[in-house]
Amino acid sequence: MTAQITIRLQREPFDAAAEAAALTRGRADIGAVVTFTGICRGEENGKPIAALTLEHYPGMAEAEIERHVAEAAQRWPLLGATVIHRYGRITPGEDIVLVVTASSHRQAAFAAAEFLMDYLKTRAPFWKQVEQAGGKTWVEAKEHDDAAADRWRKTNPQAAE
């Protein structure tokens, strides 16, 4: 069976369990599923926040995510992957992103999920604005996130960026 790939950008919440079930339904070849859900925290840089607003360039964002899911499928023997990223105004406690990876064995599923999250955190074309008591500010890239993503280049120097 071929890998089942789902990529969606949406405003509305998602159901992580339902998405994982959809990815594995009817598949006896999948031996491992890894899910990661990113959740909006109630603080940024030690200060409470009211919300995050995520913006993206429709069409471009999906194409970039598809490209990196394809790279993950080249690096590891994935049988399926789901990436759902929300946009719009998201309040603390709400889900932001879901990555689900499926493979015959856990190592591939874990590595692919981590690779995809490192990419989404640093390279996906999203812009994040934080709403706090003093106003709204755009979030800058963080060095530790960039370092996490760069390690994948070191493990596969031929990978396209």
Summarize this structure briefly.
The chain has 161 residues and is of the alpha+beta class. It has helices at residues 16-24, 60-75, 106-122, 143-155; strands at residues 4-10, 32-39, 43-44, 47-48, 51-56, 78-86, 88-90, 95-103, 126-132, 135-138.
Describe the structure.
The structure is a single chain. The chain is an alpha+beta fold and 161 residues long. Helix content is 34%, strand content 35%. It contains 4 helices and 10 strands; from the N terminus they run E-H-E-E-E-E-H-E-E-E-H-E-E-H. The protein has helices spanning 16-24, 60-75, 106-122, 143-155; strands at residues 4-10, 32-39, 43-44, 47-48, 51-56, 78-86, 88-90, 95-103, 126-132, 135-138. A hairpin with a 2-residue loop joins strand 3 and strand 4 (47-48). Helix 2 (60-75) runs antiparallel to helix 3 and helix 3 packs across helix 4. It is globular, with a radius of gyration of 16 Å.
Count of runs of 4 or more consecutive helical residues: 4
Spans of at least 5 consecutive residues whose pLDDT stays below 50 are: 157-161
- Helix-strand string: EHEEEEHEEEHEEH
Strand content: 35-45%
Strand order, largest beta sheet: 1-6-8-2
Share of residues in helices: 25-40%
Helices and strands in order:
Elements: E1 4-10, H1 16-24, E2 32-39, E3 43-44, E4 47-48, E5 51-56, H2 60-75, E6 78-86, E7 88-90, E8 95-103, H3 106-122, E9 126-132, E10 135-138, H4 143-155
Parallel strand pairs: 1-6
Antiparallel strand pairs: 2-8, 3-4, 5-7, 5-9, 6-8, 9-10
Helix pairs in contact: 2-3, 3-4
Any key phrases for this structure?
161 residues, alpha+beta, four-stranded mixed β-sheet, four-stranded antiparallel β-sheet, 4 helices
